[in-house]
Write a sequence for this structure.
């Protein structure tokens, strides 16, 4: 049997709407104490320094470095005073954060909205959870009851024993610590002074040592700073590591893993998009791969594969991920790598996905290649071409490829007008149109047209004895590279 371990970090609480980030706390301090400049914050507390990102691990790393630096001061009287100053600053900050987080947590509990994403029900069921947060949000959203055990690694608001600090005793520079009181705010030292935390620490250690193979899920933890030494035991032991990421924060996490572990450990990592925990069911794409009969709102494996390819997302094929809701508000046009539609079913699936998404008309954040292959004129294709979201994607199109298709191009080319498209390639296709011509001046960025073994046909045009043309007009129109083979209906008008 494979045991399941979950690491829950501050990113989890932020995901469900709790303002628990370092930056949110800093903003609140600034507002309450009328602090504006960086120097004001530093005078208020010397631990408030500019070289900190929106991450608590950065803050704790800064505290470590300040204590190490203080131990290198030659004037021992000054050095001891400096250590005491930083320890007192940490204690003040810890108390202020306790007050701040207690207030924010109470307010959050009053505004909890949404249903828990079923994927988290599956992940937390029978798992051992190491909660690095100070809140009881896992209980509030009824995930704690699903878990086998939940450990509050660094204390809780409820027990009034939250812990900030460094990891001096497990640091490779520990030999540099020579001054008294330097390790007063070492996390392990403080845990050993707290009977509740020490009891949990001992139990966690025993579980890790006694369990066999484990799968590790990391939800919203930076995998850095003073917690890394503790986490390394889990990371090295894990059979698989499911590392949940938001946007591009996986980059820093993977870099940390590469710097601290060998290649074998990194090979075990599987990056998972951090889908929203609490969701409005009316605003989600529902995927169900459990084998159960699908509801009207749910889609199966084919649609999920198309969605994953479209947004370059990875969803593992195991039981924990059989049911998953994707919040559409988290999807952006810039997230799309390419669009490849290789069947009528693909068109229908994409049309279903885009029904939930509203891209801004002026979103020019990324140029996207779009390809149709083996697509026929059907309701899915026709509806897709007319959808507002797909029109936005067409306006961002870098290259349009049509291969082995039998479709009408009128609406497609109309939506492509004024786009970023630089190339149109048509192969082995039978295309229909009601138009006499397409004016290339409507495509200001077009540089190349390639047509191989394809035809444009129209009963109306044929009855009138009219051939279809691409027209090049306008003095400023770019010279186009046109490659035409077996295409009798394409000619240029002077």
């Amino acid at each position: 049997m494979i045991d399941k371990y979950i690491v829950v970090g501050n990113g989890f609480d932020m995901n469900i709407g709790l303002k628990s980030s370092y930056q949110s706390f800093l903003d609140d301090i600034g507002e309450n104490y009328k602090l504006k400049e960086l120097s004001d914050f530093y005078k208020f507390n010397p631990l408030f320094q500019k070289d900190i990102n929106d991450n608590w691990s950065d803050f704790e790393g800064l505290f470590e470095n300040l204590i190490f630096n203080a131990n290198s001061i030659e004037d021992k009287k000054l050095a001891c005073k400096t250590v005491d100053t930083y320890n007192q600053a940490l204690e003040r900050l810890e108390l202020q954060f306790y007050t701040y987080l207690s207030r924010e947590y109470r307010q959050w509990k009053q505004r909890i909205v949404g249903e828990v994403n079923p994927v988290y029900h599956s992940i937390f069921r029978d798992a051992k959870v190491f909660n690095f947060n100070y809140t009881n949000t896992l209980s509030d959203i009824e995930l704690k009851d699903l878990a086998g055990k939940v450990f509050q690694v660094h204390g809780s608001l409820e027990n009034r024993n939250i812990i900030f600090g460094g990891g001096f005793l497990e640091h490779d520079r520990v030999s540099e610590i020579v001054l008294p009181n330097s390790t007063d705010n070492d996390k392990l030292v403080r845990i050993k002074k707290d009977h509740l935390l020490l009891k949990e620490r001992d139990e966690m250690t025993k579980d890790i040592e006694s369990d066999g193979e484990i799968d590790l899920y990391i939800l919203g933890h930076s995998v850095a700073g003073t917690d890394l030494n503790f986490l390394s035991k889990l990371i090295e032991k894990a059979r698989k590591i499911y590392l949940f990421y938001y946007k591009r924060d996986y980059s820093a996490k993977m870099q940390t893993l590469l710097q601290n572990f060998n290649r074998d450990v990194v090979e075990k990592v599987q990056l998972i998009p951090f889908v929203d925990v609490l969701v409005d069911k009316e605003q989600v794409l529902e995927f169900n791969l459990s084998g159960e009969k699908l509801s009207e709102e749910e889609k199966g494996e084919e649609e999920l594969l198309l969605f994953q390819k479209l947004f370059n997302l990875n969803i593992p094929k195991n039981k924990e991920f059989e049911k998953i809701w994707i919040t559409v508000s988290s999807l952006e046009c810039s997230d799309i790598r390419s669009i490849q539609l290789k069947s009528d079913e693909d068109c229908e699936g994409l049309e279903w996905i885009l029904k939930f998404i509203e891209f801004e008309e002026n979103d020019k954040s990324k140029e996207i290649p779009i390809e149709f292959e083996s697509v026929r004129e059907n309701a899915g294709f026709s509806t897709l071409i007319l959808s507002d979201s797909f029109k936005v994607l067409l306006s961002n199109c870098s290259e349009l490829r049509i291969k082995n298709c039998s479709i009408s191009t009128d609406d497609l080319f109309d939506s492509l007008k004024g786009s970023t498209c630089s190339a149109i390639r048509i192969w082995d296709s039978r295309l229909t149109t009601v138009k006499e011509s397409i004016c290339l001046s409507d495509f200001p960025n077009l540089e190349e047209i390639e047509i191989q073994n394809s035809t444009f046909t129209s009963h109306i045009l044929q009855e009138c004895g009219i051939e279809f043309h691409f027209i090049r007009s306008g003095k400023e129109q770019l010279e186009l590279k046109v490659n035409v083979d077996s295409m009798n209906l394409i000619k240029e008008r002077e």
In short: The chain has two domains: 3-279, 332-485. The longest helix spans residues 76-110. The two ends are 76 Å apart (CA to CA).
